[in-house]
Sequence to fold (406 residues):
Amino acid sequence: MPGQGILSDLRIVEASAFVAAPLGGLTLAQMGADVIRIDPLGGGLDFGRWPMSHDDVSLFWCGLNKSKRSVALNLADPEGREIAMSLIAAPGEGAGLFVTNFPPRGWLDYDKLKAKRADLIQVTLQGDHKGGSAVDYTVNARVGVPYVTGPASDETPVNHVLPAWDVATGHLVATGLLAAERHRGRTGQGQHVKLALEDVALSVMGHLGFIAEAQLGCARGRYGNDLFGAFGRDFACADGRRVIAIGLTLKQWNSLVEATGLAKTVETLGARLGLDLTKEGDRFLARRELGAAIGGWIAARSFAKVAASFDHAGVCWGPYQNVDELVHSDPACSVENPLFDSVEQSGVGRMLSPRSALRFEAFDPRPVGAAPALGEHTEAVLGEILGIDGAAYGRLHDRGIVHNPR
Fold:
């Protein structure tokens, strides 16, 4: 059974694929919940999702299913579907919690599941509010972000490699389930919670002012690597290393000016342009001139000297590095950081694996759990929750409803 954590009294069943819904389950599992993932025999839609290990094990699947238990059933068979429904609606305090991003029909239909357990909570993630299909990349295209990303001179869309809407939605899946569980604790009532990936993107676009800008006739344009509305961008050092320096707040800006020794230059520039460079918006208007001055200072110095000056002055800055450099040379991405542990993952080897980024004062960090083998816990879960003993499990195996884990 999973170790202790702040949610160790909850049991959640998950039937999902790809990013947002599995991330919601992972978020809950890393806080101690017993998350049981149900997959078809042979694995679900994302069981072979890239990237892959040298032994053709999906690193994607392993990453999003850490600390969960795996049940594999023949979901093409009515008996397999009935077992899945029984697991979802099984009795127990802190149980009757279900997360899915598959269409809520058949064995995933809320009303059918509710007939088995009246206080069932089901969180169903959809593509759009009408129940249509969508993924992060199609949603991102629709809300316009690819046209405000990339060089100012480019007229073509630039797709983002980070599935930001999936990430935000995954955490809302966890939030929604916990809110509904809290409501059930007060009232005894379950409910069907629906969440649309596209709605998450639209709401964030509204929260951040993108929609209001367009309504006011000043839709956001492209500004390349310049930080919109303040000062910040990438710079090259004398030895070719690149850094990003930010002057968003006044304190950050003053630190950057102090580190570069450009106070007089900045004062003169502000007077010439008629701008108050203590204001972040005016720094954005002067971004080209400020970038030339600060960029010149950085270009005349090695990365080591720039880093020392920035650190001494408390500048908000960072080095540009690729993922390989992050993993092999940055102590923040190592076991020196309490976020990480080194875990033996079947079919992969030892992996640097993060635990939950949340730190609860009343609980020690939960150890990082490896992702299970497909169906690894089927026999144990069916026995523990549904009372299926060894002989009955053997008969299920003989009928092809379950099989030994891969």
